[in-house]
Amino acid sequence: MRVLSARCSILAPVLSSLALALLACPAQADPLPPEPTKAEQVFHQHLLTLDTHLDTPASLVLPGWSIMARHAVRDDGTQVDVPRMEQGGLDGGFWAIYTPQGPLDPVHTRAARDYAFARAVAIHDMVAANPKAFALADRAADAAPIAASGRRVVFLSIENAWPLGDDPTLLQTFHALGVRMAGFAHFKTNQFADSATDAPRWDGLSPEGVQLLAQMNRLGVVPDLSHSSDRALDDALRLSKTPVILSHSGCRAVYDHPRNIDDAHLRALAAQGGVIQINSVYVKALPQSAGRKAALADLEQRYPEDRVLSVAERADYLARRHRIDHDWPEVRAGFDDFMANLLHALAIVGPDHVGIGMDWDGGGGVRGLEDVADLPRVTAALRRNGYGEADIAKIWSGNVLRVLAAAEAEAKKEQEKGQGAD
């Protein structure tokens, strides 16, 4: 794959309010998890570990920020960089091209397309500038050799297909840039699908969404239904020729939130061969104070998500956010809340259909699992709950790579079918 080295101007969104909530850690009643033993640390480092939803590309465009330097979540709210990946044994994953949803008109949609391409370029720039630290992955089979070489695995994914506009075939261009997983919608319903957190318009996937799903199958892109409605998931399970994934979702039986999935859909997902990647957001109800809500709303109005920030503006944003967290501390979930979601999914569908997509740098993180440096705690907790090496290996990477390999196989079959028709 050609690596794009030209650096382009890109909108620099501020860090999400959920991620920056980690800047302040008020006292909580829930206990922190025990530190992993040396043996558990060694075991974790031996695994191939991939996270299916890294929002870290948002950090790449922050002024003065470097993926190669160690940062602290208490300082700038970021959760992923190379030193912390090394400490936490994270081998890489799917780096998200995220576009915040805007108006569904041609002007805004074209701008969203350019924004998404710029975000893809930023990811390629990261790899090109640090070839000893990162490598682009084209196929499922690339992940293990890249990790064995000491580099971090970089698959690309799309969160929110809105930038594709009215042309699902544009996905082919993003596929050429390394996209191997793509979601349909985000917090708002768009032209492709109903969102789980917005009023329905299509009763699932739209006609264009059905076309986009077919395009994913043709290209070998894994369909991602996180953020999409239950009815959209039903459509994808019915129509997709390959298993689908929920790249960063939780369990509704543990916390009844529309972003999470109920047990019936969990079983349907598993029956189709798919995987739920458990995140660390929406793991339990977290009622916040009125003062905090109002202060955060004022901050968001001052610095909207897609606002271009100068160095001085970002410093001001962080200072204001620190004050909010000091004056109105956030009620936060803990490690046990995250594990409750993970263990519930495992109990319902088993280790062949569960993985991990924490939503780092996009709102993820709980007490005791603040950034990627803490990931050995997850492996240790799985072992202490009776899961062995083979199952944990599936959870950390085997399942998502199986789904990606199935998508590749379907794309090859459709390509051969097309050549035969010629």
What does this structure look like?
With 422 residues, the protein is an alpha/beta fold. The protein has 2 domains: 43-286 and 332-421, TIM Barrel (Alpha-Beta Barrel); 294-330. It is 43% helix and 10% strand. It is built from 16 helices and 9 strands. It has helices spanning 17-20, 38-46, 57-60, 73-76, 82-88, 106-129, 143-148, 171-176, 207-219, 230-239, 263-271, 290-302, 311-327, 335-349, 376-384, 389-421; strands at 50-54, 92-98, 134-136, 152-159, 179-183, 222-224, 245-249, 275-278, 354-356. Strands 1, 2, 3, 4, 5 and 6 form a 6-stranded parallel sheet that branches. The protein has a 3-stranded parallel sheet with strand order 7-8-9. Helix 2 packs across helix 15, helix 9 packs across helix 16 and helix 12 (290-302) runs antiparallel to helix 13 (311-327). Mean pLDDT is 91; it is low at 1-28.
